[in-house]
Amino acid sequence: MSDNLAALRKELNYEKTNQCVQCGYCLPVCPTYLTMGKETHSPRGRINLVKMAGEGRITDLSVLEEPLDLCLGCRACETVCPTGVEYGAILESARAAVTRRKKHSLPVKILRNTLLKKVFPSRKAMNLIGNAMWIYEKSGAQKLARKSGLTKMAPAHLGEFEAITSPAVSPWERSSLPAYTPAKGSKKYTVAFFVGCVMDAMFRKINQLSIQLLAEVGCDVIVVENQTCCGALHAHTGEMEESKRLAKRNIDAFEQAEAADFIVNNAGGCGGMMVEYDHLLADQPQWAERAQRFARKTRDISQILALCGGIKGKDRPAERVTYQRSCHMTNVQRVTREPVQLIRQLPNVELVEMKEADMCCGSAGIYNMVHYEASMDILDLKMEHVKDTKATTIVTTNPGCLLQMKVGIERENLGGSMRAVHLVEYLAEAYGLNV
């Protein structure tokens, strides 16, 4: 074997592809295989392509680009695989290998570098975006853009997503997120809260309510300085070195909260990334142990709320809800029981699980923007199952799922009879907190 091929095998995580026995158990749970019907768009098909590249039978790695790019990265295949194939590790290594060889045009290169290295990792930049959204709403520009049809002309179907985004909070409210919030009553735990990048810019109200709920159930809540983006978007787009850099920044930042029992997040995708920091940095001895400690402490907010006894909801009119499961929360964090438990504890709430509840909704970070048609095909399947539940509320645990479900409601013309909310919003509403 040549040195070049040996190096490529290591780069592709080739050894892990040998775990796949091509049995096909992954096919029925793969959203892209179900909607596209192509072997190359199934987990075993993608693994086979990577394997062929590692064996020198594919010499142009650009052949892998479309199949890998069209994968949602939901990792449902891992939960049904009888041989324990580490599909996520193979996918991210292969994407990184393709990205290293891809020649982007200068404008695309500048845009990628700006967004991935300057905007998402910067809380200051994300705050500016959040403030700009508030000005856009309050100045009347939003109404004018919608009335004139300008939003419909936006690229990547951004106008469709703009129409369903949550109201922005004011710059004054945005600057008031406390560094420390004491527990109400007797303290049970101390938690360090992860604010995220998109969550903090577009869903600041959910972050505020998360901190309030944690305090209500008995947690001292710390918001540490210098935390940054979790790095998930970077990993999913093949920018593994930048993802590692962000992971190190977060580990550094949260180690300052030595008193924290847990590191808590409220976004399934972010949590899925952070619980795997130990895998991400396993090859760096000076970081491996610190990453393991970080990952062991990481929890979704539903886990902590359930651990503290749940939320005592007030009596309300009877309501039927269904729960849209976050892929990375389900398949990576393996958090499935606590959100359901929290919803079922609420008075006068009937939870009806939808068919194929674990199936991806098609959001997958920015997948629904860069692969809109493929994403909508998956969403349409999901919405058929949602409608069958006859629920009036869809509860989600991830910002991407939340936006996608809102789009699904609009596509089905159900805006007058159905809504989508984050689990934190729903629990806060039931508890009587200001939403």
| Overall geometric form | globular
Strand content: 5-15%
Mean pLDDT: 93
Determine the CATH topology of the domain at 312-431: Rossmann fold
Q: Give the termini separation.
A: 62 Å
Question: SS-based structural class?
Answer: alpha/beta
Strand order of the largest sheet: 1-3-2-4-5
Question: For this structure, what is the CATH class of the domain at 312-431?
Answer: Alpha Beta
What radius of gyration results from the CA coordinates?
A: 22 Å
Overall helicity: 40-55%
The main pleated sheet reads as: 5 strands, mixed
The number of distinct β-strands equals 9
The oligomerization state is single chain
Proper CATH architecture of the domain at 312-431:
3-Layer(aba) Sandwich
The helix count comes to: 26
Poorly predicted residue ranges: none
Organism: Paenibacillus validus
Protein name: Glycolate oxidase iron-sulfur subunit
EC number: 1.1.99.14
Function: Component of a complex that catalyzes the oxidation of glycolate to glyoxylate.
Describe this structure in words.
- It is a single chain.
- Helix 25 links the parallel strand 8 and strand 9.
- The termini are far apart.
- Among the domains are: about 5-100, Alpha-helical ferredoxin (Fumarate Reductase Iron-sulfur Protein, Chain B, domain 2), CATH 1.10.1060; about 310-430, Rossmann fold, CATH 3.40.50.
- The strands form 2 sheets. Strands 1-3-2-4-5 form a 5-stranded mixed β-sheet. A 4-stranded parallel β-sheet has the order 7-6-8-9, with helices on both faces.
- It has helices spanning about 5-10, 15, 30-35, 45-55, 65-70, 75-80, 85-100, 105-120, 125-140, 140-150, 160, 170-175, 200, 205-215, 230-235, 240-255, 270-275, 275-280, 285-295, 300-305, 325-330, 335-345, 365-370, 370-390, 400-410, 425-430; strands spanning about 180, 190-195, 220, 260-265, 300, 320-325, 350, 395, 420.
- The chain has about 425 residues and is α/β, with parallel strands linked by helices.
- Helix 16 (about 240-255) crosses helix 19 and helix 20 (about 300-305) crosses helix 22 (about 335-345).
- It is an enzyme of class 1 (oxidoreductase).
- Component of a complex that catalyzes the oxidation of glycolate to glyoxylate.
- InterPro entries: 4Fe4S_Fe-S-bd, 4Fe4S_Fe_S_CS, Cys_rich_dom, Glc_ox_4Fe-4S, Helical_ferredxn.
- GO terms for molecular function: 4 iron, 4 sulfur cluster binding; glycolate dehydrogenase activity; metal ion binding.
- Keywords: 4Fe-4S, Electron transport, Iron, Iron-sulfur, Metal-binding, Repeat, Transport.
